[in-house]
């Protein structure tokens, strides 16, 4: 009933559609599938998280090693708790590792920068679920300006 | 008093129309499909609604991508942010324009012809005579057309987005001089598979369902006169366009708002 | 009387407020041509749809070979429909297929026969209606009479027991009218099927029908063989058979008095 030509054109159409989906996933998105790899969680408390958002990247020296998966407020001391999803291949950060909230460029997005601490026999490796103790909060522009003005004022 | 009466009547007719549409879809789709007989019918309809819509989708996708690049560039260059052209174009196409414009074009191109075709079959008693031959027109005529539209439209939307991005590349990179590497790498770092591409696909699947459903229902339910068919065709395009835009807002709010 | 194939008992059918049939009784004998006549607009086509199960009556029974059509389940109804077929007034050929595929359609849908056998069957049916030469034409290329003959070939494709003709003579020139009359008669004799002809073309129907029902005002107003109908004394039947403009069925659609309405216009 259906001619070979019609079958061919329909096949071509479906193949083209699937190719477009594939191209979108591979070429346009960041290799989306590796982002779904297995991760483990670390936690970090900050004074102030500024503009950090869920899914913000976590970088070591510019390389993305994970993403922020959750931001909540500790119900006891009212400080923000950030959950870090870190790819499993990066599993040997020591206790001395510090984490700070940085900004990419002047107007860019905020991200978490991880500075791996030295590894020593006296220091343990961070296990899934541990808290990173050494944290530096986001720079809030208004506070910076306030501090600057204050120090100017007191200097005179 | 009379206006209240009329309001009541039109409410009743809206709900009974919805009920008829649901019943029609149920009885067309809820049965064990016969693949041997169904396959050639589906291929034929995929050709009619899919392959034949390809040209309009490719051409409009290309132009929309080019316009986006041109407009986006003139805005972004003021902030020295023309490097963000790639992600801007890709995100607008993947999240919004791909699914929505493809759905609107599909409603105009394929939806209206589905309605007119089915309506004409009804007016010339072809559906009735099929029923008397113990062949259920819902399964023989409606079901393959519905599935073809449902399958074709997400594919068309993906092709639309891809061609749009290529069009933007043509204007942004080859004409306006944005660096090609920046264009792609900024796009890749900003676009996420799960959030942007999947959500766009979900949108176009929803739109495909709605537009094709309206098109086949309007044809099946139309008044079997030439005037009735023309009214049904118009209302297919109008209703599916409005519903696509309305649903787009709802879906966007559900998916991207935080 | 001979065997009854279709038996309609005390059937009442209403479309919204309007009563189409009230307590009507009709029996269609097996192997005969039964005609149903009546003025236009009294729902003769509706009667065929009722027999085919496309419409359901408000009350009463429609028995087809002992099975009550309105109460059948969907799948039983489709089984029964395989034993009957209907020739629509417009022919209702599928416009996207050529004549050959149109006639092959019911065979392909309901049987698992090979293409060779299907082709032979279709050619034989086309030969019977004299359209073997037109098998590659599209329905839009056929004249009205040819389309109706092609549709007739399609309705006999699966050798049904009952065939219902909806206005087979309407809008035909005398030659194709003669052809169709001959076809109905010869099909009925050759295949031994039962025919129901719905029409208001008195002379043609009189020439082929074994038994005639005349329906008007929601009821059967006259029945019998052609000869019996001619001898009827009822005014209504006479008016219909003789084709008089005015009589028990009034020429004027119900309206207010002419004088009253004209006066209103001049006011």
From TrEMBL, chain A:
Q: Which domain of life is it from?
A: Bacteria
Q: Which residues does the UniProt record annotate as the domain Mce/MlaD?
A: 39-117
Q: Which Pfam families match?
A: MlaD
Q: Which InterPro entries match?
A: ABC_MlaD (IPR030970), Mce/MlaD (IPR003399), MlaD_Phospholipid_Transporter (IPR052336)
Q: Which NCBIfam families match?
A: OM_asym_MlaD
**Protein name in UniProt:** Outer membrane lipid asymmetry maintenance protein MlaD
Q: Which organism is it from?
A: Thalassotalea eurytherma
TrEMBL record, chain B:
Q: Which InterPro entries does the record match to this protein?
A: ABC_MlaE_roteobac, MlaE_Permease, Permease_MalE
Note whether Cell inner membrane occurs among the keywords. Answer: yes
Pfam families, A to Z: MlaE
In which domain of life is the source organism classified? Bacteria
Q: Does the keyword Translocase apply?
A: no
Q: Where are the transmembrane segments?
A: 12-32, 52-76, 146-176, 197-217, 237-257
Q: Which UniProt keywords apply?
A: Cell inner membrane, Cell membrane, Membrane, Transmembrane, Transmembrane helix, Transport
Report membrane topology: Multi-pass membrane protein
Kindly list the places in or outside the cell where this protein is found, as annotated in its UniProt entry: Cell inner membrane
Q: Supply the NCBIfam families for this chain.
A: MlaE family lipid ABC transporter permease subunit, perm_MlaE_1
Assembly information from the UniProt record: The complex is composed of two ATP-binding proteins (MlaF), two transmembrane proteins (MlaE), two cytoplasmic solute-binding proteins (MlaB) and six periplasmic solute-binding proteins (MlaD).
Q: What does this protein do?
A: Part of the ABC transporter complex MlaFEDB, which is involved in a phospholipid transport pathway that maintains lipid asymmetry in the outer membrane by retrograde trafficking of phospholipids from the outer membrane to the inner membrane. Probably responsible for the translocation of the substrate across the membrane.
What family does the database annotate? Belongs to the MlaE permease family.
Q: Identify this protein by name.
A: Intermembrane phospholipid transport system permease protein MlaE
UniProtKB/TrEMBL annotation, chain C:
Q: Does the keyword Translocase apply?
A: no
Recall the GO molecular function terms of this protein's record: ATP binding
Keyword Nucleotide-binding carried by entry: yes
Q: Which organism is it from?
A: Thalassotalea eurytherma
Please give the name of this protein. Answer: ABC transporter ATP-binding protein
Highest taxon in the source lineage = Bacteria
SMART domains of this UniProt entry? Answer: AAA
**A Pfam entry, by short name:** ABC_tran
Q: Which PROSITE patterns does this UniProt record tie to the protein?
A: ABC_TRANSPORTER_1, ABC_TRANSPORTER_2
Give residue ranges for domain ABC transporter.
6-242
What keywords tag this UniProt record? ATP-binding, Nucleotide-binding, Transport
Matching InterPro entries, A to Z?
AAA+_ATPase, ABC_transporter-like_ATP-bd, ABC_transporter-like_CS, P-loop_NTPase
């Amino acid at each position: 009933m259906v001619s070979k030509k019609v079958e061919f054109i329909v096949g071509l159409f479906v193949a083209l559609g699937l190719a477009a989906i594939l191209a979108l996933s591979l070429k346009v998105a960041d290799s989306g599938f590796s982002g779904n790899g297995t991760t483990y969680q670390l936690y970090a408390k900050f004074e102030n998280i500024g503009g950090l958002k869920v899914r913000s990247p976590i970088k070591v020296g510019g390389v993305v090693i994970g993403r922020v998966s959750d931001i909540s407020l500790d119900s006891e001391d009212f400080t923000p708790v950030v959950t870090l999803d870190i790819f499993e291949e990066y599993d040997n950060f020591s206790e001395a590792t510090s984490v700070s909230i940085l900004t990419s460029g002047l107007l860019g997005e905020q991200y978490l920068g991880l500075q791996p601490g030295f590894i020593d026999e006296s220091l343990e490796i961070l296990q899934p679920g541990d808290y990173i103790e050494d944290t530096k909060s986001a720079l809030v522009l208004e506070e910076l300006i306030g501090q600057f003005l204050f120090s100017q004022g007191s200097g005179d | 008093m009379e206006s209240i009466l009329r309001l009541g009547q039109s409410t009743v007719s809206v709900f009974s129309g919805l009920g008829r549409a649901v019943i029609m879809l149920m009885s067309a789709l809820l049965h064990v499909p016969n693949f041997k007989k169904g396959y050639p019918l589906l291929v034929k309809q995929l050709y009619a609604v899919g392959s034949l819509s390809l040209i309009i989708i490719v051409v409009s996708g290309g132009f929309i991508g080019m316009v986006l690049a041109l407009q986006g560039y003139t805005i972004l260059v003021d902030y020295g942010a023309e490097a963000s052209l790639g992600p801007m174009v890709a995100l607008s196409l993947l999240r919004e324009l791909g699914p929505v414009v493809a759905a609107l074009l599909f409603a105009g191109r394929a939806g209206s012809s589905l309605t007119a075709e089915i309506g004409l079959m009804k007016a010339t008693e072809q559906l009735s005579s099929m029923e008397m031959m113990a062949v259920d027109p819902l399964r023989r005529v409606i079901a393959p057309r519905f599935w073809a539209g449902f399958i074709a439209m997400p594919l068309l939307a993906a092709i639309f987005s891809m061609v749009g991005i290529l069009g933007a590349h043509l204007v942004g990179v080859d004409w306006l001089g944005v660096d090609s590497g920046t264009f792609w790498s900024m796009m890749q770092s900003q676009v996420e598979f799960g959030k942007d591409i999947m959500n766009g696909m979900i949108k176009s699947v929803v739109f495909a369902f709605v537009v094709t459903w309206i098109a086949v229902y309007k044809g099946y339910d139309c008044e079997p006169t030439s005037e009735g068919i023309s009214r049904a065709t118009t209302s297919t395009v109008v209703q599916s366009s409005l519903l696509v835009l309305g649903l787009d807002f709802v879906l966007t709010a559900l998916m991207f708002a935080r | 009387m001979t065997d009854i194939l279709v038996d309609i008992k005390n059937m009442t059918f209403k479309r919204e407020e309007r009563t189409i049939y009230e307590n009507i009784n009709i029996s269609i004998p097996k192997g005969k041509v039964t005609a149903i006549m009546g003025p236009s607009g009294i729902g003769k086509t509706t009667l065929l749809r009722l027999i085919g199960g496309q419409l359901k009556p408000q009350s009463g029974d429609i028995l087809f070979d002992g099975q009550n059509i309105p109460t059948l389940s969907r799948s039983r109804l489709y089984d029964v429909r395989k034993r009957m077929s209907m020739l629509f007034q417009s022919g209702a050929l599928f416009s996207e297929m050529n004549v050959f595929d149109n006639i092959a359609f019911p065979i392909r849908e309901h049987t698992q026969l090979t293409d060779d056998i299907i082709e032979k069957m279709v050619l034989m049916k086309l030969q019977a209606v004299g359209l073997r030469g037109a098998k590659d034409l599209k329905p839009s290329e056929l004249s009205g009479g040819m389309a109706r003959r092609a549709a007739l070939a399609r309705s006999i494709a699966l050798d049904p027991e009952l065939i219902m003709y909806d206005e087979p003579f309407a809008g035909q020139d005398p030659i194709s009218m003669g052809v169709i009359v001959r076809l109905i008669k010869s099909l009925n004799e050759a295949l031994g099927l039962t025919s129901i002809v719905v029409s208001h073309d008195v002379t043609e129907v009189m020439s082929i029908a074994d038994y005639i029902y005349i329906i008007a005002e929601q009821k059967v107003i006259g029945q019998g063989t052609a000869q019996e109908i001619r001898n009827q004394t009822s005014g209504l039947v006479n008016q219909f058979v003789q084709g008089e403009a005015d009589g028990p069925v009034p020429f004027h659609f119900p309206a207010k008095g002419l004088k009253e309405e004209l006066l209103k216009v001049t006011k």
